[in-house]
Design goal:
525 residues; alpha/beta; ten-stranded mixed sheet; two-stranded antiparallel sheet; 20 helices; 39% helix; 14% strand; disordered C terminus
Length: 525
């Protein structure tokens, strides 16, 4: 039988992390001010009428401000699929898809089809929408579709307009959310995870987090090391780069991917007709960019500028075949000239599951920037710093550098986070998984998290393409499954090679969220 006493659920050291600094007049940590949260008994119910009965959802309450546990509360949507083999059950595997801003309540159902049976025998799969996201008291800034598009190139003649946009974005969020913005942070989401652990009556939690979820999981291990069991951090965020550096690294990482793509494509000139040498392939691409800057190229019902091509191609170049297919189609469209008929085609966007549609239209974008701006106090405040950085980055990383370095809403964010960013100094065991060619969290980023987590081991998939490793029939799957089922980390860091790309292996990509405001390649080209 599971004990629900707070001595079991929340030790004194845990309370110190859970309650950062109690406000004057609030009960002391020794008086267990959070028992009202960890003692909750969720009212589990079927998540949706058309979902399996085993897929259950509930809502729990957590404090908005953990230094005021008796103050305002926010709802946290959680979900689970229990293991059917109680005799082999180890505990729970908490799941996070990334973001920030990604909904996780659907992950138990989605990952049930991806994870091996040996893992599902060991764990209940548990998902949740992080605070401010989806069904968990979603944030909204009242942003229009155009205001949500933050992927903006640096242009000297448009920079003043972009500064105005960034300021208006931040002001709308402040008007809509006020002081709440300070508390939508990664550290508070880690505290929410600790409450979930207590509510479920577990001594420890295991965890599988992708992309931003790697940083969230790493923060949890720092704040609650004694309650971290087996942690897999897949496609990792470098803590030293949060968060401006993680956007800027997209420009840095795109250049070697572009070089690799041009070499691969040149060897297949008979197929793609883009150039017989890498230099010729790159010239074909930049000629298309220059041509679109002079006159937009009509492609699949849309008119693409050179900047559209640069930004839309960045992610595709990490998957050489997809990049070559897309640029070859674009070149054919450019050579044909303007289409005579047809209505413009709106960019496609993924449809949320039925149980997740209550969130405002701008929720994922608002949640993304709320976390990114509040997590760290390192964002520059002077717009001219962004201008200078963008000019330099465009020269150094011409494909995407200026997009990553130009002005962002955080320059005008009025509510700094309630705490400084997390410093890592623990030796908690964890397994970091990383594809060599990942467009969202490049290899250098994964290595950065591995360095920060002294007790981790890293598996690098040489030649691996795409964002997300575990569950993609990767060569790293065996190591990850062994760790989850036995608890044994590899004795040393490993490098393996997956023979073919996910598409060639007949695998559909993991349903990980694209950062809000960044349509995928198929939405651009």
């Amino acid at each position: 039988m599971r004990s629900r006493s707070l001595t079991h659920v929340l030790a004194a050291s845990t309370l110190a992390a859970l309650v950062p600094a109690l406000a004057p007049g609030t009960a002391s940590a020794a008086e267990n001010p959070l028992e009202q949260y960890t003692g909750q008994r969720p009212s589990w119910h079927r998540c949706a009428s058309d979902s399996p009965a085993s897929y259950q959802c509930a809502t729990i309450k957590v404090p908005l401000d953990y230094s005021r546990p008796d103050g305002k509360k926010v709802g946290l949507a959680i979900s689970r699929m229990k293991t059917s083999t109680a005799a082999e059950r180890r505990g729970v595997l908490l799941l996070n898809p990334g973001g920030p801003g990604g909904s996780g309540v659907g992950m138990p159902l989605g990952m049930a089809g991806q994870l091996p049976a040996s893992v599902k025998k060991k764990y209940d799969l548990v998902g949740f929408d992080p605070r401010g996201v989806g069904k968990s008291s979603p944030v909204s800034c009242g942003l229009t579709a155009d205001e949500q598009n933050w992927e903006r190139p640096y242009r000297a003649d448009k920079f003043a307009k972009d500064v105005k946009w960034a300021r208006a974005f931040a002001e709308k969020c402040d008007t809509e959310q006020g002081d709440r913005l300070r508390h939508i942070t990664t550290r508070n989401t880690a505290r929410d995870m600790e409450v979930i652990r207590g509510v479920l009556g577990e001594k420890k939690i295991s965890y599988l987090g992708y992309s931003y979820g790697t940083y969230l999981g790493a923060v949890y291990t720092q704040m609650f090391p004694r309650h971290a069991d087996r942690f897999i951090l897949d496609s990792a965020v470098d803590p030293a780069r949060i968060w401006r550096g993680m956007i800027q690294i997209w420009g840095e990482g795109a250049e070697p991917a572009f070089t690799r793509w041009s070499e691969w494509t040149a060897r297949r000139h008979s197929t793609y007709r883009l150039g017989k040498t890498p230099k010729a392939v790159r010239k074909t691409f930049w000629d298309l960019v220059a041509r679109a800057d002079r006159e937009p190229i009509e492609f699949e019902g849309r008119k693409l500028t050179g900047d559209d091509i640069r930004s839309g191609s960045r992610g595709a170049f990490f998957s050489v075949r997809e990049g070559a297919d897309s640029i070859a189609k674009l070149k054919k469209a450019a050579d044909r000239g303007p289409a005579r008929t047809g209505e413009p085609k709106a960019p496609s966007r993924p449809t949320q599951p039925a149980f997740g549609r209550a969130a405002p239209d701008d929720n994922s974008t608002a949640a993304f920037w709320t976390v990114v701006c509040a997590d760290t106090r390192a964002w520059p405040r002077d717009p001219e710093r962004y201008r200078d950085d963008a000019v330099r980055a465009k020269k150094k990383y011409p494909l995407y550098g200026d997009f990553g370095s130009t002005i962002k809403p955080c320059a005008f964010w009025k509510k700094d986070g309630s705490e400084p960013a997390t410093t890592f100094d623990n030796k908690v065991g964890a397994l970091v998984l990383q594809n060599e060619w990942d467009s969202q969290t490049p290899l250098a980023s994964g290595r950065g998290l591995h360095r920060a987590m002294k007790g981790s081991r890293m598996v690098t998939v040489a030649g691996g393409e795409g964002h997300g490793v575990y569950g993609t029939k990767s060569c790293a799957d065996k190591t990850a499954t062994s760790y989850l089922t036995t608890g044994r980390l590899p004795a040393k860091d490993l490098t393996c090679r997956t023979p073919a790309s996910p598409r060639e292996r007949g695998f559909n990509k993991l349903p990980l969220p694209t950062p809000p405001g960044l349509p995928g390649m198929t939405d651009r080209l």
